[in-house]
């Protein structure tokens, strides 16, 4: 556990630094262009390469030293940041350098994620998986809770370059800590080096009972969670100001933080499939209820509870995958799983705004065709179409969770662990 904690601390520092850079670049882009589209493009470029390259990063994690891959990924991610700093130094106000720098960093980050996930399995016992998963979520949450506050404070006294240099230092700290741990770990010879295609990896999941069902259902869960993430902000903006939206974002992170902290300290030692289904069921109820009432306090409570339960969904799914797959295959499997499940989120990001603007909001307007039916139950007017979408998302999560709970093959993963 000591070696894992050392690497985890390095990734925590790196996550905080990355969150500060993301916040600073968002503010910089808004000041330069006053365009939400520019901000969205930065977010997409930071996210999409990691998803697309996850299978490739996973294959590398099974063929080469995983700690070395993490060091290479973190080290070369610095190049994108240095390029942005250089362009700001020479007085460029064009956002193209930021787009390019963010993309470069995201490409090399694709090496880190699968190797980091498999390192958990390398260094810990099965009984420690759930606790480690909670801690990993805790580190990831820090970029949304701690980073914006720190970046906001520093931007009051310094410009974007200072934040970027702090991020560069955070990468260096992570690399040094990984190097320190790496010296005490013998590099094992990974097997199955010939099985490297994506199709063969997906076929290989059939060898592990319940894994394909779990991946398919978690993709569906990610889709509904993605819808929720996109819809919360515009829903709150129909009731309150941008400051309140910031508070709601903090509540999301605090909820995930509370759930992750509980798991990180207490752990989940058994019945992972059952707890996954129960947590998903509760998450569906909470987010569905958030769409019924146009009151900020009500939505805030439901969002907080939703993200608390989401921490248990993520941790239990993480443990089930680790238990089902042999260590020597986990790199490519994690890469493939991230690629498939995160595409559920990408699809939600792409369609949520269109569905809200062109279907649900017009339908739930005062004179909309659903105003006299569903509108009598949840109200009509601005924001009620989004509310209906949240209710539908909640129902989708509940159904997905019931399917997980009733799937015998997924339950078998737990039996393998407990023997």
TrEMBL record:
Q: Known PROSITE patterns for this protein? A: MFS
User: From which residue to which does the signal peptide run?
Assistant: none
Q: Where is the Major facilitator superfamily (MFS) profile domain?
A: 3-408
Which sequence ranges are marked TM in the entry? Answer: 12-30, 36-61, 68-86, 98-116, 136-156, 162-181, 213-232, 244-263, 275-293, 299-321, 333-356, 386-405
What keyword terms does UniProt attach to this protein?
A: Cell membrane, Membrane, Transmembrane, Transmembrane helix, Transport
Localization (cell)? Cell membrane
Its membrane topology, per UniProt?
A: Multi-pass membrane protein
Q: Which domain of life is it from?
A: Bacteria
User: How is this protein named in the record?
Assistant: MFS transporter
């Amino acid at each position: 556990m000591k070696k894992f904690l050392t690497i985890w601390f390095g990734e925590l520092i790196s996550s905080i630094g990355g969150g500060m850079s993301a916040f600073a670049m968002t503010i910089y882009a808004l000041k330069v262009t006053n365009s939400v589209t520019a901000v969205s493009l930065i977010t997409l470029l930071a996210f999409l390469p990691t998803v697309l390259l996850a299978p490739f990063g996973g294959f590398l994690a099974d063929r080469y030293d995983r700690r070395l891959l993490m060091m290479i990924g973190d080290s070369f991610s610095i190049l994108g940041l240095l390029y942005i700093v250089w362009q700001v130094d020479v007085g460029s106000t064009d956002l193209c350098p930021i787009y390019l720098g963010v993309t470069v960093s995201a490409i090399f980050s694709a090496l880190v994620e699968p190797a980091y996930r498999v390192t958990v399995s390398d260094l810990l016992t099965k009984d420690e998986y759930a606790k480690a998963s909670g801690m990993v979520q805790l580190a990831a949450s820090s970029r949304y809770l701690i980073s914006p506050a720190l970046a906001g404070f520093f931007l009051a006294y310094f410009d974007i370059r200072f934040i970027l240099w702090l991020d560069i230092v955070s990468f260096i700290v992570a690399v040094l800590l990984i190097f320190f741990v790496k010296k005490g770990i013998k590099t094992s010879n990974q097997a199955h080096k010939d099985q490297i295609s994506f199709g063969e990896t997906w076929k290989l999941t059939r060898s592990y009972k319940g894994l394909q069902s779990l991946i398919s259902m978690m993709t569906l869960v990610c889709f509904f969670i993605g819808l929720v993430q996109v819809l919360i902000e515009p829903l709150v903006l129909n009731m309150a100001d941008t400051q309140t939206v910031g508070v709601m974002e903090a509540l999301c992170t605090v909820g995930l933080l509370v759930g992750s902290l509980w798991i990180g300290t207490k752990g989940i030692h058994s019945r992972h499939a059952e707890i996954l289904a129960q947590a998903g069921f509760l998450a569906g109820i909470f987010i569905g209820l958030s769409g019924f009432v146009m009151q900020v306090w009500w939505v805030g409570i439901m969002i907080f509870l939703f993200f608390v339960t989401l921490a248990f969904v993520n941790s239990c799914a993480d443990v089930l995958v680790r238990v089902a797959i042999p260590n020597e295959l986990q790199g490519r499997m994690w890469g493939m799983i991230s690629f498939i499940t995160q595409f559920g989120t990408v699809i939600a990001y792409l369609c949520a705004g269109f569905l809200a603007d062109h279907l649900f909001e017009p339908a739930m307007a005062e004179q909309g065709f659903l105003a006299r039916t569903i509108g009598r139950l949840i109200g009509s007017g601005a924001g009620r179409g989004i509310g209906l979408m949240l209710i539908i998302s909640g129902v989708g999560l509940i159904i997905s969770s019931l399917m997980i709970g009733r799937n015998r093959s997924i339950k078998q993963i737990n039996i393998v662990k407990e023997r």
